[in-house]
Design goal:
The structure is a homodimer of 189-residue chains. Chain A has 3 helices and 11 strands; from the N terminus they run E-E-E-E-E-E-E-H-E-E-E-E-H-H. Chain A is 17% helix and 41% strand. In chain A, strands 4, 7, 8, 9 and 10 form a 5-stranded mixed beta sheet that branches. Chain A has 2 domains: 38 residues, Roll (SH3 type barrels), CATH 2.30.30; 130 residues, Nucleoside Triphosphate Pyrophosphohydrolase (Alpha-Beta Complex). Chains A and B meet through strand 1, strand 2, strand 3, strand 5 and strand 6 of A and strand 1, strand 2, strand 3, strand 5 and strand 6 of B.
Chain lengths: 189, 189
């Protein structure tokens, strides 16, 4: 079965308004069956990263910060945005070290996910860093204010349950490394 | 321990440029320790939904479509955006029926997650709909082109592995209902 019946044809692209964090692009596309033209927004962004870091004592390195989108605090695994020309693995190691002071350990890729394939063009690269240690002080940007928490998996499940850890990207990162979900359906059809 | 050391104070808000899907707002906020002022972008959006639907035969109802952000096809559980004044559960039932023709079944809330707490103000509400049946034809918007796939959990794991199912919101929805991840670390510290 080919995908021709659901494949859109891009006709043109033009830049959108200036925004922080994203570069807005508008694409003009032709619907696969009706031929009608639609204008769709794409938010171009650098690659993102997320790091599930486990200390040599077996605790997860989590960060608490005020998040401007929701206007409230969250607890999450460390995330970040790649600088221009920076490999995602280097972004991940840099962000973990800057935001928490933890580094070292054995790094394993947990693959990449799409934050929002409908509107964003980038991927979120996920790692598990096992056996990290505190090797320096936090080194935050002037625009950051972050508190570090060392947590057991049970404590992580508690902050999910009480609504403080709901960031879907960080949830997926942690869920790739540790069994945090109680499945509603354990049956495997 | 209070959060005063990481609590930002909002000083002012102003509207940003016009965009589809999001209403852009800029907040002016004061850093908790330095007192320096920063302008942060918030993308205001209606509530989003995602539905893990299982047929009476035990198959998952998945949708394949061309995603404009990544410029490629994805396979996912059904997602959608609440109309103005629409309760998220009604959005979820409407979107499943419109995009796939499946309905009915027993609906269980799997909670809500944040698509991006750093920039977005909305939540994604997740449901498991167990025992759905094909009750009508697809009823797509003019701007949609969607193919329905009925898949076993093993088939879902295959399209995750081959990179066709990477939408982090839908991955979390399915992972809440079915054990799709092989944990890199099964230890529970």
């Amino acid at each position: 079965m080919t995908n021709d019946s659901i494949r859109w044809q891009k006709i043109a692209s033009e830049p959108g308004p200036e925004l922080p964090l994203f570069k807005v692009r508008y694409d003009l596309l032709r619907h696969p069956s009706s031929g009608e033209e639609f204008r769709r927004m794409v938010l171009e962004a650098p690659e993102w990263v997320n790091v599930v870091a486990t200390t040599t004592e077996g605790q997860l390195v989590m960060v608490e910060q005020y998040r401007f989108g929701i206007g409230d605090f969250t607890i999450e695994s460390v995330g970040g945005i790649a600088d221009e020309g920076e490999a995602p693995i280097d972004t991940a190691k840099r962000e973990l070290l800057e935001e928490t002071g933890y580094g070292g350990g054995v790094w394993q890729s947990l693959g990449a996910v799409q934050a929002n394939p409908a509107t964003q063009n980038n991927l979120v690269h996920i790692w598990h860093a096992d056996g990290v240690q505190l090797i320096k002080e936090q080194d935050l940007d002037p625009g950051e204010a972050i508190r570090v928490h060392l947590m057991s998996v049970d404590q992580v499940k508690e902050v999910i349950a009480d609504g403080r850890f709901l960031n879907v990207i960080a949830l997926t990162a942690v869920a790739r490394a540790y069994p945090i979900w109680d499945y509603v359906s354990g049956d495997n059809p």
